[in-house]
Amino acid sequence: MTVVLGHRSPLVAAALSATLAQFADMQVVVESCHTKLLALARRRKPRVVVIDHDLADPAAVAEFCRHLCAALPDTRVLVIADHQRSGGVLSRFVSLAPQVGLIGTEAAPEDLISAICQLDRGEPVLDARMALAVFAADRNPFTDREREVLQLAGEGAPVCDIAAKLHLSKGTVRNHLSRILSKTGARTRIEAIRLAQEAGWV
Fold first, then answer.
1. Which tops the pLDDT comparison, 132 or 190?
2. What architecture does CATH give domain 2-137?
3. Were both Cys, which of 4, 15, 136, 165 would link to 200 (CB 3.0–4.6 Å)?
4. SS3 helix, strand, coil % of the chain, rounded to 5?
5. Fold type of domain 144-199
């Protein structure tokens, strides 16, 4: 079985590649640049593409999955992600099941191999903790843009940086933050971030 592996860390990618080659009959091709990954998959036509969720920003990884599903309908994608990620982010991949599966970063090598084989057989793969996060996100009161604003705010970015990153005006960012405070019932941005994280909304 040919497997394409997209991972941001060459060291981790090499270890994963060696593990897959050692414990399963898999030929692994590695790529660490997400912009080259689709072209590589088109050339090699792998049975499964395994991609690190942090290879690029979540929107770019989700877009890659959508393009690959359309271009190579017989190829499956396994996304390796942290189960503590926002359910709203993870739901982008769940909506593409069963062609796209999700597995946690803490999975054992045998679990990774099993997930690849399951996808290859056309079976769905979804980490249970991620499924719970996605379920919680269904009740998320925030819009996608509000989640993006809140995530950046949670990283400590000031309004001007959030505006530049999301290509918004500073006034629009302040309006988003005001609606976030209203929806969470929080008095401060820090409290809103804490409440949203505890609820699994970001």
1. 190
2. 3-Layer(aba) Sandwich (3.40)
3. 136
4. 60, 15, 30
5. Arc Repressor Mutant, subunit A (1.10.10)
